[in-house]
Backbone:
């Protein structure tokens, strides 16, 4: 009960700090298994996407995050494990049996959706351009081609909590969910990653039309 109250407090705080307006373009909230993949500029990104989802979708959606960051201290560990049910990825102890892709597949099972950031880390460019996608998303859907992939574009999050800052500044932002894509039959890694990245970039162009 207490965890639920604290969780709702974090959700409300994320919405207040981000001032996020939420848009769905050719996409509706659904509990089917999905991978929400987004551009990444702030430590708040995953929380804001998660908080933007309706409660019935949020309950079966897990944020993918770095274990070394979220297990650094009792507070972060409590937040990630007991409030967000985050799926933590070990970026240091990686081997053939403990790859990030295998951890994600095990963590989602046949129930959960995931929130991931294919750039691998936060984009450092001031223009907010989407960086090149790493291969993890491709290898994930290669093993689970049934997954619905939802591009998500975050706007203005890098100004709310810039790199190197620990105290967020309340500001208006936007979260745009785009039309789903799937891995096409015979599509190679580079072609898929280019298409996935372009899906996010395309949403960035549409945000100005909708805001």
Residues:
């Amino acid at each position: 009960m207490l965890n639920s109250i604290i969780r709702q407090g974090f959700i409300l705080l994320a919405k207040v700090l981000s001032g996020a307006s939420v848009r769905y373009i050719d996409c509706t909230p659904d509990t089917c298994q999905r991978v929400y993949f987004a551009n990444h500029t702030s430590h708040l990104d995953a929380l804001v996407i998660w908080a933007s989802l309706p409660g019935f979708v949020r309950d079966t959606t897990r944020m993918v995050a770095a274990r070394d960051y979220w297990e650094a201290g009792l507070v972060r560990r409590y937040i990630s494990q007991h409030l967000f049910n985050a799926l933590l990825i070990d970026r240091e102890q990686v081997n053939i049996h403990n790859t990030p892709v295998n951890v994600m597949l095990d963590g989602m099972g046949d129930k959960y959706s995931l929130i991931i950031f294919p750039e691998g880390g936060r984009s450092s460019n001031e223009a907010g351009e989407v960086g090149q996608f790493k291969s993890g998303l491709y290898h994930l859907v290669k093993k689970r081609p049934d997954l619905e992939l939802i591009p998500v574009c975050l706007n203005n999050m890098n100004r709310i909590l810039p790199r190197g800052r620990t105290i967020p500044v309340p500001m208006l932002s936007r979260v745009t969910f785009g039309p789903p894509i799937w891995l096409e039959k015979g599509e190679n890694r580079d072609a898929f990653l280019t298409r996935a990245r372009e899906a996010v970039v395309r949403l960035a162009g549409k945000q100005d039309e909708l805001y």
